[in-house]
Design a protein that fits this description.
- The chain is of the alpha/beta class.
- It contains 13 helices and 20 strands.
- It has three domains: 5-79, PUA domain (Archaeosine Trna-guanine Transglycosylase, Chain: A, domain 4, Roll); 87-250, Transcription Regulator spoIIAA, CATH 3.30.750.80; 268-464, Rossmann fold (3-Layer(aba) Sandwich), CATH 3.40.50.150.
- The chain has helices at 15-18, 87-101, 147-153, 161-168, 182-186, 188-200, 224-227, 272-280, 303-310, 323-335, 349-358, 380-397, 415-428, and strands spanning 5-9, 23-25, 29-33, 51-55, 61-67, 73-79, 124-128, 137-146, 172-179, 215-220, 233-239, 246-250, 253-257, 293-297, 315-320, 342-346, 363-368, 398-408, 433-439, 458-464.
- The strands form three sheets. Strands 7, 8, 9, 10, 11, 12 and 13 form a seven-stranded mixed β-sheet that branches. A seven-stranded mixed β-sheet has the order 16-15-14-17-18-20-19, sandwiched between helices.
């Protein structure tokens, strides 16, 4: 293999990379050289998707990267060594990422912990891009059964994973994948081959294979691809996907998921733990109505609201601007046997909250899980105003002693800024809050130190005391 081109950084620009951040921005580069020695190296031009070495201004080696001169992120470092990229590379990285989800270290030792998943029955993110050392690659795995077979075979409501397995046999799995940078996109077939080979073989000696996916759906429709100079692309790339969608189980509860039609990768797996905790505040946990009134704002397909209803909430209102999402809320309520206690409202959440205040409605539990208001730091100031408004309105609607679960998936909004915004919203509402808990994304979306972009989801749990 010929020597790779070399990216030489400006003085001081290596500090962030030495702390673990994998990106090199275009304005941090001093020059590009060919693969010659220092004395013979000539100027060079980077080509989209190729590999290149990254060096500091004093020639300290920093790592090997995927590059794209068309993007502001000119290089994404994937290894601190001079590691090549082939199918074997992808197989190894994917395998290690899956083992981490299972609570197993690279040497085979059990590590356990909150991020441990039983992948035979749990849906999970298998690869989280740079946080799993596979830049701009997302792989989610969904475990369950086709919706139409569930509806035909299982009549009782609610039902559980074991009921479905007894009626239909072992579950199948489907994958949702995103290729979000040039280098990953042009290696798409190689990555898919590697992924299928990893899943079809035992991850470690003595283990059973997770099994081939029944279908792989590409969800490369994210706008970030346009910044890479790539077209948006979605659709089935291997196998098939049931026309009516599938049913997965989250915290033991059934949810309808349609990978081809859903947002992002099809279902927001990152809120799994927070939904379970929010439901724990309902109290009974036995699906018996207990008088508690819940508002699930920006409900999408009702993840928080259905958990609350199954925990015993008397009334759950799911608000979303998407009629299609609310139709799935209704499906999920029916699957869980709580359709009589779950109602939907198609509305802009700001307008709904203002109207609810005018009507003097009050709730025992309010969940705010809006889409990212700040896609980047340039949008942060306007986003803070939006977060303040939505939280202020929600706090006004809380009964005394009521609980607010408020979330932000804007990476640009850091934890300190989010907590400050909540304090200001409570002050404007003339209410006092007690922080009950504070959480982040679920463990299958790891937070990599030094790479703040992997730390994006904040979830505060507060009780109104007046």
């Amino acid at each position: 293999m010929a020597s790779l081109k070399r990216i030489i950084l400006k003085p001081g620009e290596e500090n962030r990379i030495l702390m673990g951040h994998p990106w090199v921005f275009d304005n941090e580069i001093a020059r590009i050289l060919d693969g010659g020695t220092n004395s013979s190296a000539a100027p060079a031009v980077l080509l989209p998707g190729e590999l290149a070495e990254v060096e500091s201004s004093n020639r300290k080696y920093l790592g090997r990267s995927f590059v794209n001169p068309n993007s502001r992120i000119s290089a994404r470092i994937y290894s601190p060594s001079k590691e090549g990229v082939d199918k074997g590379f992808f197989k190894n990285r994917i395998r290690l990422a899956i083992l981490r989800r299972m609570g197993i270290g690279a040497s085979g030792n059990l590590t356990g912990g909150q991020g441990s998943y039983n992948l035979a029955m749990e849906s999970a993110r298998l690869v989280f891009a740079e946080a799993d050392f596979l830049p701009a690659l997302i792989i989610d795995r969904f475990v369950g059964w086709p919706l139409d077979t569930i509806e035909t075979a299982i009549k009782k409501r609610p039902f559980f994973f074991e009921d479905a397995e007894e009626a239909l046999g072992p579950p199948s799995s489907w994958l949702s994948v995103q290729f979000l940078c040039w280098a990953m996109d042009e290696r798409r077939e190689q990555i898919l081959d590697a992924l299928e080979e990893v899943l079809s073989a035992p991850l470690m000696s003595g283990q059973e294979a997770l099994g081939m996916a029944a279908g792989i759906v590409e969800k490369s429709g994210a706008k970030v691809r346009e910044l890479e100079g790539l077209p948006l692309r979605e659709g089935i790339v291997r196998g098939s996907f049931p026309a009516q969608g599938i049913v997965i189980f989250e915290n033991g509860l059934p949810f309808a998921v349609h990978l081809e039609e859903g947002q992002k990768t099809g279902h927001f797996l990152d809120q799994k733990d927070n939904r379970r905790l929010a439901a724990a505040f309902i109290g009974t946990g036995n699906n018996s109505p207990n008088g508690i009134k819940v508002l699930d704002a920006c409900a999408y397909t009702g993840g928080f609201g259905i958990h609350a209803a199954r925990a015993g909430a008397e009334s759950v209102t799911c608000v979303d601007i998407s009629a299609a999402a609310l139709e799935t809320v209704k499906k999920n309520a029916a699957l869980n046997g709580v359709e009589a206690r779950v109602k939907t409202a198609e509305a802009n959440v700001f307008e709904y909250l203002r109207a609810a205040e005018r009507k003097k409605e009050r709730f025992d539990l309010i969940i705010l899980d809006p889409p990212a208001f700040a896609k980047n730091r340039a949008a942060l100031e306007a986003a803070i105003r939006g977060y303040n408004e939505i939280n202020l309105r929600a706090i006004l609607l809380l009964k005394s002693g009521g609980i607010l679960v408020t979330c932000s998936c804007s990476q640009a909004m850091d934890e300190a800024g989010f907590k400050k915004m909540i304090l200001e919203a409570a002050t404007d509402a003339k209410r006092r809050l007690i922080q009950l808990d504070y959480r982040y994304q679920s463990g299958d979306h790891p937070i990599l130190t030094g790479y703040d972009e992997s730390f994006y989801l904040k979830a505060g749990f507060y009780r109104a005391v007046n």
